Amino acid sequence: MNKNYDNIVSILVNVAVNEPYSYSVPDGKSVRRGTIVRVPLGARKQIGVVLGKPKNNIAHNRLRDIEYIYDCPPLREELLETINWMAEYTLITRGMLLRSVLSAKKALEKEKPLLAYKLNNKFYATSEKKLTRARKKVLNILADGLAHTKRDLKERAMVSASVIDGLEKIGVIYKVEIDKISEFTSPNPNFAPLKLNKEQMKALKNLRKMDKGFGVALLDGVTGGGKTEIFFEKIADILREGRQILILLPEIALTDGFIERFALRFGAKAAKWHSEMSENQRAKIWRGVMNGSIRAVIGARSALFLPFYNLGLIVLDEEHDSAYKQSDGMNYHARHLAVIRAKFAGIMLILSSATPSLESRFNANIGKYKHIRIENRYSKIALPDVKIINMREEAPKGGKWVADELILEIKKNLQHNEQSLLFLNRRGYAPLTLCRACGYRFQCSNCSAWLVEHRFVHKLMCHHCGLEIKKPTKCFACGQTDSLVAVGPGVERIAQEMQEIFPDARQVVLSSDMGSGAALREKFMQIEQGEYDIIIGTQLVAKGHHFEKLTLVGVIDADLGLAQGDLRAAEKTFQILTQVSGRAGRVGKRGRAYLQTYHSENKIFKALSQHDSEGFYEHELTIRKEAGLPPYGRLAAMIISADKNEKAFSYARSLIAHAPKSSNVQDLRNLKIYGPAQAPISVLRGLHRVRILVQSEKNFNLSSYMRFWLDNAPKPKGGIKMQIDIEPMNFY
Ligand code: ADP
Ligand code: ZN
Asked: From the CB of 250, is ligand 1 less than 6 Å away?
């Protein structure tokens, strides 16, 4: 074989590899950086992207040809750079990041042309009398001389497909190919702008004053401060420039509602993007984003991998939300990815939150992000009156969870026809089932976790691996019947308690058990319309929603998040309690929030009741600084798992033994390696888990250290798995 060196390119393939392979370009074809191609890899075919000239020449006879060049624009430089940077930082392979970009395979296939029907005028004139009514109805529609799709004809004439097929057969109508009309009307920046108040206007001016090109703004303001309306105006600016915008939300369940709100302002729907969409829908959006016919996307974190044509702005709403961190093996944080993408695209990123992450607050404090504050609610209604209920003194007796003081408030609300929300971040009925006779606790057979009772469906479930068993009637250990007791509350149990106290109140339980689809949306809508008096929910209800009649929030267990004991426990608790309290009294009337706690002395509760977020951030940042923890230091975790605990430990020990002790490029004196230690969830899905934690100073390149370490350490084998998590957000 005689290959021309000029025609050899390096191609990154969408499998778990970090480096590109070399291929030759078939004679007469040409590719450039970013071109999407199909190549043979081993016995398989893979999709890849051309990166450029190979670094090293490889032997001619081993080179294979590019098999197919897709007819679609090349991936843009900013996206290729983003992949590269993310791979360096997160240690996710470049190939897997590319796979996230190429997540809509169907988008690469040629679109099938759309078929439609036109009237054959000659025939119509002569054969009109002999037609059935159904056929006439179809012809009447086609009488406008335009081409109509089968679907359109079926729907409008209310006939079956066979009527149309019949007409085609006798030659009265004929098939034509038509261009697909984009179903996405462009948003209109001038459709329905709101008049901003002074504080909002000032914030918008500050956004507009920022340099053209890359920059991050932290839009930090109270719940109901009108932040959404502010960034909508910045979005309008970008749309006027003819560029695309992307809004990210932490939960799929929030997207539909947000798309509607967007449509009210811009007169058109934004395209939706998340992992639960069908392959066809994804293909449509992917193509539209790439060719520029779709101008606005609202989606979950994976939307950050879309191949935008000319992205002009990214907004990350509720930027503090821990759902932005993915930790299923592809461990990255959407906030981080958004910053990197914005940087390489040279555009603005807006981070919006009423309770920013400590990281973002820190970056705002040191001037890396532009800090834009909103102090007052748009409605002028004061923030809710927050009261602390000291459960050491006021806890109700045996098997009850709601204090008298809170019950009294709910009663008042029922009398005034106002809604109450009881918040407990725990699905199901009870987190533990115990045998009173022998003390046996029902545990998952795959995980070191209790089984949670879900009483509505008569099941015990593992919230880690999804295992379900029918609710047992006797103890697995001693066989005794009638000895099983539910320990602790979940939302279903609170619902039962409310049902007993207020049998006439209309109540609803909301948790992710209801999925994220239509049923859930319907419930949200019913709540908005005031069809329920008492809402009992998990964190699902804490976010984003706007319930007009809701004036009371009760937090059943304000200590729940604190008990988790990771470094962000206080931060996360402060955030979620601020968010959920902020649901109360958004329109018309000041709300009240009651927090039930056994630790009323904790600083968090003082900060919450005085709305002193500044005080909280200052305190928390001081603690982090003293401990050298993020945002003042860096962390990386290694999670090792294996079928036997000793296997996991011994591999972890060998990893530690290979940790680089010296470096020519970095000072290792302040690097700390902790572990190996048994993970808090010691067994997950049948695998024993061990953790190693590495801590460094802020200005240390921890990613490159970890990469160097792993390159020189034994690889996991024999069923051992190792996951690396840079800047871990959870520690279980
Ligand atoms: P945030 O995003 O800060 O929680 P929102 O943007 O949702 O706040 O605003 C809270 C409420 O006030 C919403 O119902 C919103 O439509 C309304 N609102 C905010 N700004 C304006 C404005 N300039 N004109 C009219 N209504 C506004
Ligand atoms: Zn399990």
From this structure: no
Domain count, the chain: 6
Q: What mean pLDDT comes out for the span 25-49?
A: 94
> Residue range 584-602: average pLDDT?
89
**pLDDT tens track for 119-139:** 887 766 555 566 788 888 898
Residues 618, 682: one domain?
no
Q: Which amino acid is at 482?
A: D
300 and 315 belong to one structural domain: yes
Full residue range of the structural domain in which residue 661 is found: 633-726
Cis peptide before 431 (omega within 30 of 0): no
The DSSP bridge pattern shows strands 468-470 and 419-423 to be unpaired
Dist. CA 448 → ligand 2 center (Å) = 7
Q: What is the pTM of this model?
A: 0.89
Q: Any idea which ligand is nearest the CA of 380?
A: 1
Mutate to test the pocket of ligand 1, among 218, 219, 229 (most ligand atoms within 8 A of CB): 229
Q: Cα(88)–Cα(183) distance, rounded to whole angstroms?
A: 38
Asked whether residue 360 falls in the same domain as residue 329, the answer is yes
Predicted confidence band at 2 (pLDDT cuts at 50, 70, 90)? very low
The crossing angle, in degrees rounded to 10, of helices 133-142 and 161-169 is 80
The answer to whether position 32 is within a domain reads: yes
Q: Is 196 in the pocket of ligand 1 (CB under 6 A)?
A: yes
Domain check: are 606 and 644 in the same one?
no
Reported as a single tens digit per residue, the pLDDT across 391-445 is: 999 999 888 999 999 999 999 999 999 999 999 999 999 999 999 999 999 999 9
In angstroms, what is the span from residue 443 Cα to ligand 2's centroid?
Answer: 8
Kindly calculate the radius of gyration of the chain based on its CA atoms and give it in whole angstroms: 30
The residue assigned the tokens 């039930």 is: 596
Atom from ligand 1 closest to the CA of residue 374: 3
CB of 666 sitting under 6 A from ligand 1: no
Find the 256 Cα to ligand 1 centroid distance in Å: 18
Relative to the CA of 228, which ligand 1 atom is closest? 6
CA proximity to 225, closest of 364, 316, 363, 353: 353
Q: What are phi and psi of 582, to 5 degrees?
A: -65, -10
Same-domain status, 294 and 422? no
How does the average pLDDT of the chain come out, rounded?
A: 91
Q: Is the pLDDT of residue 5 over 70?
A: no
Q: Are residues 90 and 123 in the same domain?
A: no
Cβ of 194 less than 6 Å from ligand 1: yes
pLDDT score, position 156: 87
Looking up tokens 């060719």 gives 291
How far does the centroid of ligand 2 lie from the alpha carbon of residue 253, in Å?
25
Percent of the chain at pLDDT above 70? 96
How far does residue 540's CA lie from ligand 1's centre (Å)?
Answer: 21
Residues 707 and 612 in one domain: no
* pLDDT level of residue 667 (50, 70, 90 thresholds): confident
Counting beta carbons within 10 angstroms of the beta carbon of residue 198, is it exposed (0 to 12), middle (13 to 18) or buried (19 or more)? exposed
Residue 127 is predicted with a pLDDT of 57
Question: Are residues 500 and 615 located together in one domain of the fold?
Answer: yes
Q: How far does the centroid of ligand 2 lie from the alpha carbon of residue 519, in Å?
A: 27
